[in-house]
């Protein structure tokens, strides 16, 4: 079984990865909007 410190470390890593994915999704949406604007 995982100890408490190990779980806290994994939870912190998970939270940071989710944060990076949110920023990446927003960045992709902005890039898509710019490309669509340039094409039209």
From TrEMBL:
Against InterPro entries, the record matches this protein to:
Cyt-C_aa3_sf, Cyt_c_oxidase_su4_bac-aa3
The record lists the membrane-crossing segments as: 20-39
Domain Cytochrome c oxidase subunit IV bacterial aa3 type: from-to ranges: 2-34
**What are the record keywords, sorted?**
Membrane, Transmembrane, Transmembrane helix
What positions belong to coiled-coil segments?
none
Q: Which Pfam families match?
A: COX4_pro_2 (PF07835)
Q: Does the keyword Transmembrane helix apply?
A: yes
Q: What is this protein's record name?
A: Aa3 type cytochrome c oxidase subunit IV
């Amino acid at each position: 079984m995982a100890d408490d410190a190990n779980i806290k470390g994994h939870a912190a890593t998970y939270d940071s990865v989710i944060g990076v994915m949110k920023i990446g999704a927003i960045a992709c949406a902005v890039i898509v909007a710019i490309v669509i604007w340039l094409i039209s």
